[in-house]
Amino acid sequence: MRVPLMRCLAVLVLIGFATVCRPAGAGELVVVGTGDGVEMLQAIAESFRKVEPTIAVKVPPSIGSGGGITAVGSGSAALARVARVLTEAERARGLIYTPVARVPSAIYVHPAAAITQLSSQQLAAIYAGRIANWKDVGGVDQRIRVVRREEADSTLVVLRATMPGWKNLEFTERSKMAVSTQESVETVRLTEGAIGFGPYSRALDIGTRVVLIDGLHPSDPRYPSSVEFAYVHKQDEITPDAAKFIAFTTSPDMTQLIRSFGAIPAQQ
Q1: What stretches of the chain show up as alpha helix (H) in DSSP?
Q2: Is pLDDT of 129 > 70?
Q3: Is 105 left (phi over 0), alpha (psi -120 to 50) or beta?
């Protein structure tokens, strides 16, 4: 008997989620959730291992902020990494939110576009489809390939709230939907003419070009858009390893490391 295709796909999705959120072994802390700030978190984990060599902090692939919160709420993970604040309903379930840093949003393009900066008005026109060729904004004669994210994406939520012209912006129908930060970055890296957005990190300088918006780089304090990277855990069920890692991350000792990734520590 043939098993319906959608049932097979549903089973595969559940297996993948269970693999990412499987219970951690002894001396292992798995921090699940958003794709924002991953490189920064990995560097923090490496520094933590030098101080606490018996605790291995793992940063698996993104399952989104919502996925991380669900994992902590269900007890399948002790600690989540998120790029959005908790809802009132989530707080009512005893979840605790600990801010770590503000991570600037970034607009990045494939280097072949020969673009180094855009105005906020040009950026909105590109995502609306009103500008469709890089030559119209000073680049090469090449079709613009727009990469977007789903409406619940943390960077998109911030861009809609802070970037001029984005509040009610309707994206061009010719845009490609990326389902994670990693997919957005890789699509832009591999596709000539592509433009995407996501959290700023030094890794974007490899294979993409971060574009100045209204003359400002994401690392500039005047840059308008950023997301808050934070941890989430259950109020009365935090593990000793998770408590140590949270305290380490938010300590003054991590200020310089966090700033080296273009982020602003929460305690600043």
Answers
A1: 5-20, 38-51, 64-74, 88-92, 120-128, 154-162, 181-190, 240-249, 255-260
A2: yes
A3: beta
- Hey, CA dihedral for 247, 253, 254, 259, is it positive or negative? positive
CATH class of 5-103+228-265: alpha beta
CATH 3.40.190.10 in the chain, residues?
Answer: 5-103+228-265, 104-213
User: What confidence tens digit (pLDDT) does each residue in 147-156 have?
Assistant: 999 998 889 9
| Residue 227 neighbours by CB distance under 10 Å | 28
C-alpha distances in angstroms, 18 versus 10, 34, 72, 239?
A: 12, 16, 13, 20
Scan for tokens 């294979």, then name that residue. 207
Cβ 180 vs Cβ 62: under 8 Å: yes
The top-level CATH class assigned to 104-213 is alpha beta
Q: Are 162 and 224 in contact (CB under 8 A)?
A: yes
pLDDT in tens, 43-59: 999 999 999 999 999 99
pTM of the predicted model, to two decimals?
Answer: 0.74
